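Hi W.,

Here's what went into the run:
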Amino acid sequence: MAARSNILVCTGTGCLAGESEKVAKNLQLIIKARGYENEVNVIKTGCFGFCEKGPIVKVEPDNAFYVSVSPKDAKEIVDEHIIKGRVVERLLYKEPVRNEIVSRQEEMPFYKKQLRVALRNCGLINPEDIFEYIAFGGYEALGKVLTSMTPEQVIEEIKKSGLRGRGGGGFPTGLKWEITRKQQGPEKFIICNADEGDPGAFMDRSILEGDPHSIIEAMAIGGYAIGADKGLIYIRAEYPLAIARLNIAIKQAKEHGLLGKNIFGTDFNFEIAIKFGAGAFVCGEETALINSCEGKRGEPNYKPPYPAEEGYWGYPTCVNNVETFANITQIIMRGADWFSSIGTERSKGTKVFALAGKVKNVGLIEVPMGITLREIIFDIGGGIPGGHKFKAVQTGGPSGGVMTEKHLDVPIEYDSLLEIGSMMGSGGMIVMDERDNMVKIAKFYLEFSMDESCGRCTPCRIGTKRMYEILNKITSGKGTMADIDALKQIAYMVKDSSLCGLGQTAPNPVISTLKHFWDEYIAFIKDEDSPRGEGRYEAKNKFKPGLKV
Amino acid sequence: MSIKSMEELRKIREEHQNKVNLRQTGDNSEEKIEILIGMATCGISSGARETLNAFVEEINNQGIQNIKVITVGCIGYCHSEPTVQVNMPGQKPVLYGNVKKDKVSSIINSHIKGGQPLNELVLKVDFERA
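Here's what came out:
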């Protein structure tokens, strides 16, 4: 006989430690005593992932979600819920902020796909009012750090959290701070990299526009940790609103003694200046950024020496991305353990993505690391509009590669993306459907990299240009198989021999489309009628008699 | 005024907490209604400034007293800009999308004065704030 109800008892390690085994046993005994053993099953399950509130008991089909259930609660659950059909209010999960009772699992924010850490205040507070930021717990992390932690403890906490640079490279932030801390120098600098240059990425801008104080506070914490008393924000001049709000925020922080001398009555001094960039993509690379800050041409240097050793005017310098900073205060206030409980083994925390292109819900999302592409595009993004079919998504902008249908279930984290030939990048995600021609997409990104190449090193300056010429030839239907070979050869040469990240990653869109959409390249060369994508319509039009192109 | 200790910071926090409680909990000692308007670059380019002006004008015209219009940053719902959140005391905040200036008077009349949210513009909030 089929059971009318299932009681799921979590027996993951966390809940077992909270006596969930006994909870299950008691439930079984009481159900048997009441004579319901044929109607109700008690099922031991794996971890629900909500160990903080264990032991967890879930009753199906009502979907009641009980938390912190002790063995002696078993009787009440059976007598009230199973027999009388009344949900045991007292055991339901209460959301900490609103203290509202949430009984159904899908309504629980923990199980919502999005978790906002870096974007926590965006759209909630008035960015031009320091008191609203303080009312939501602002500047407490700075106060805590200055009054009760040593710089080494701060670095240790950030290291423990597993936070990695959100600008794309994914270098561990705590380690970067530690290396800079260990350098000797009369002066040190901490720089916020707000030179967001990927086409389609705007998360840094949104954070600066929506929550500028969180960046100022985190920079001061970083300054304290590495031993710097001066901070610079390098921001592109195309972000006038972000600049205006940053200026207001810096002014307010100074007025309230949160920047300046003797912050929180300690002997820590910190001030922040803003430097404007002219919008060159290469200036997001840290050595080029430092050159630009110094008023020189925005060209990268050979590394080593790394900025941590010789950075701004030769002093030890730490460069972190806006989104990286936006996570710092939460790590300090909630602890490294909280932060590292989110995400995957090697990528902790959340990541903000700018979702754009052929997707219904275009916008900014913040999701835990390890979420799959499918969840991002089809659950949060709402799928592809107009009944079209998902084809690919470009992550990491012009430095990344494409992910295709077969990658839909790959967890999104730094290392798994590198493995499939893409990269996290700063977090742009451009979705494409079956009407997009991938060769042209590759050409578009390569054109961007070619334009943005600073010209300092030959492989990048000339290689991207040659690759672009070949792609142009292929897409105009004049290419040969030898061109594809040449394209491949140059791509790997540029990747392996360029000086900085721009050149080293510029061929990625070409390499990954060659790998995943080889047939579209071939179609341009062998078929008059390309089998897929945009090229097809063009080819048809081209050979229509009497039609002028 | 300069903040010199954690105690002073906490005091300021408490003083201003009342002001923002409404946004998360729906509690507010002052019984004020709040209208949050997403005014990041994306919002402004979709007409948030016109929406803001329309709200201020409509509120003045109708002489509504217990209401505050606040500009905030981007909430991430670029597909439905401009976005407006209405917080009424004792109620869960309601987030609206696609609030062009011509929608303003119906939000004021139906939701703020009539207590009936405008369901066709309501957006589902699918994230949690840390």
